[in-house]
Design brief:
mainly alpha; 6 strands; about 5% strand; globular
């Protein structure tokens, strides 16, 4: 591994990324200068007449006022909703009904005591509606006062409660938010701190994973085979054949799986040992677990800045009435449209860059740990692993390479967004009942998903090669690709073992958290009628936390596999982690046959630093 003498990589991409950041800041400044989010709240009545303006003739029924040229809304500046109570009673379509009024109704002696002073429209063609509740003026809207709003909300609430039992779920959620998440976080924290037994034999995990899967496959296939006896009638012959086919399919898949395990036993054992080494790395460098948390914390202000700027950018244009909406829409010019798409791509690139920094730092720290000897009892050096050094490499030498990889992720994400946007546009015009359209959309979505997975996988492996060899992104991606081709069995086996171990970890944490929450709620919160509600909340929290920590474990195992292959190519060293030494032939005579020398210090001797 190259520790000293590093140089800058992908400088051009670094400059492009910096220029893009400056351009995004310029777009944000332009949006804050020219935009006005209040325009989104421009009031329209339910016919599309804009409150507070002259010459509004959207209504068709009130012909007398149109002929009298009396459609001047200048004095009617406020929007009053006339159908909220009807919506609360179940007439959902009435919720958008509104008229433009001269003053918001306030301090009414009682409900239905007087009419509002309004401009007529198609909903109210002869006289203005009766004021049904007191309102408070906010901007150009007459919003129900607290007591009146409570009446409206209560009506809607009661309707939903009668249909789906909303009250019970809301009460249970409110109670569960008090203490249940804390218990879930405590459990996940305690589970994550469990040590990995160092005496575990490296082949035992492979045995433990393969034997139950083999037995399970036989049992499930046998169960499907027995289901044939349940279909004796002539009209059930198709079901009988289906059960028979399912049983045979399961047995064939089990046989293929067993054959794969037998043929790839050494690679699976290596994968299990790499998982063990990854566990030792995470246990000895527990502070690495903070990286995902810091990453998500950094994404929050970026997303908030982007959202605020996007709102201002969205408001640059001409206000248009939108049917079935509480707010207006904005009609953009072409320039604003291009700026918005560029601004959206910039968000994807920045978020992908932040995640890429986390991945590179994790890769660099893992490689340092491997070649520093901290995973070996025979090594003398300790304390060579440094997150600060990895961050120095990131921002001083490899900012351009990381930005390059993030750019590819952003491009693929943009392709997904544009495709979904076009698909929605087509569905709005032609509908989505066309079978051919559904097939084409499914195929394209699948292709984009595969492209996204491939790009992310290439990026992850490229970052590891950059950390090891100080390569630029393209060279690192090429080297990692050919490395995976040469060691396809190892990478696939390690990937499968890692996926199973990660799945078991997430499943164990999630299942135990939900189960313990149900027991805790039933014991300490007997007034909660639906224990499953807080259990689901805790389960979501537990899954998110487990995914954050296990993502480090998963990526570290991939980096350790890269390091192991590099270590093996140069004969191994005394610094190889103990869990992997049994897979290296350190005999000088065997190494000499390969034309390589054993390097006791873990540094390559044949031209690779």
């Amino acid at each position: 591994m190259k520790m000293d003498g590093r140089h800058c990589t992908d400088i051009v991409c670094c400059l492009v990324f910096v220029v893009t950041i400056v351009a995004l800041l310029g777009v944000s400044g332009y949006a804050f200068t020219e935009g006005d989010p209040v325009k989104i709240l421009t009031p329209f009545d339910s016919d599309g007449n804009q409150c507070g303006l002259k010459d509004q003739a959207a209504s068709l029924a009130s012909l007398d006022q149109v002929l009298d040229n009396n459609r001047d809304f200048s004095d009617y500046k406020y929007k009053y909703f006339t159908g909220l109570l009807q919506a609360a009673s179940g007439q959902v379509g009435k919720i958008y009904d509104a008229v433009c009024v001269k003053e918001c109704p306030e301090d009414l002696p009682n409900a239905y005591s007087q009419r509002v002073e309004c401009m007529l429209n198609d909903e109210h063609t002869s006289e203005c509606p009766i004021a049904m509740y007191n309102t408070t003026r906010m901007l150009s809207y007459c919003l129900p006062e607290y007591d009146s709003a409570s009446t409206v909300i209560k009506g809607i609430y009661e309707q939903m409660n009668e249909q789906v039992g909303l009250a019970t779920y809301v009460a249970d959620i409110a109670e569960s938010l008090v203490g249940a998440p804390d218990h879930g976080l405590r459990f996940v924290r305690d589970y994550s701190a469990l040590p990995v037994p160092p005496e575990m034999d490296h082949q035992a995990p492979a045995l433990y994973l393969s034997v139950p899967d083999f037995v399970l496959g036989l049992m499930v296939g046998y169960f499907a085979w027995l289901k044939q006896d349940d279909y004796q009638l002539e009209e059930e012959a198709q079901n009988k054949q289906f059960a028979k086919g399912i049983a045979i399919l399961i047995w064939v898949l089990t046989a293929i799986y067993t054959l794969f395990v037998c043929c790839q036993w050494s690679n699976i054992a290596l994968g299990a040992s790499i998982m063990e080494a990854a566990g030792e790395f995470v246990s000895s460098n527990s502070h690495i677990g903070l990286l995902p948390i810091v990453t998500y914390i950094l994404c929050i202000p970026v997303a908030a800045w982007w959202a605020a700027s996007a709102v201002y950018l969205y408001s640059i244009g001409t206000v248009k009435y939108e049917d079935s909406s509480f707010i207006a829409t904005i009609e953009w010019e072409d320039q604003t449209t291009y700026l918005f798409w560029f601004f959206l791509f910039g968000l994807f690139w920045i978020i992908a860059f932040i995640v890429a920094v986390e991945q590179f730092v994790t890769a660099a720290v893992t490689c340092m740990w491997y070649f520093s000897g901290e995973g070996s009892d025979a090594a003398q050096s300790r304390g060579a692993v440094s997150i600060s050094l990895a961050l120095k490499w990131t921002f001083l030498y490899h900012l351009g390479s990381i930005a390059f990889g993030a750019f590819l992720i952003a491009v693929v994400t943009m392709i997904k967004v544009v495709f979904e946007y076009l698909a929605k546009k087509y569905e709005a015009v032609a509908g989505k009942d066309n079978v051919i359209y559904k097939m084409v959309v499914c195929v394209i979505r699948g292709a984009i998903w595969c492209l996204d997975c491939c790009v992310k996988f290439i990026n992850e492996n490229a970052y590891i090669q950059i950390a090891l060899h100080n390569s630029n992104f393209c060279k690192a991606a090429s080297e990692s690709f050919y490395l995976m081709i040469r060691h396809a069995g190892r990478f696939s086996s390690a990937s499968i073992v890692g996926w199973i171990m990660t799945l078991l970890g997430k499943g164990t944490i999630l299942g135990a958290s939900v189960w313990l929450t149900i027991i805790l709620v039933e014991a300490q919160y007997p007034f909660i009628q639906q224990p499953i509600v807080p259990a689901v909340i805790v389960g979501v929290i537990a899954y998110v936390v487990a995914s954050l920590f296990l993502s480090i474990f998963d990526f570290a195992s991939l980096a350790i596999l890269h390091c192991f292959i590099m270590d093996e190519d140069f004969g191994g060293s005394s610094r190889t982690p103990d869990s992997l030494k049994s897979f290296l032939d350190l005999n000088d005579e065997q190494v000499a046959k390969k034309g390589k020398k054993v390097n006791p210090n873990g540094v390559q001797k044949e031209g690779v630093e």
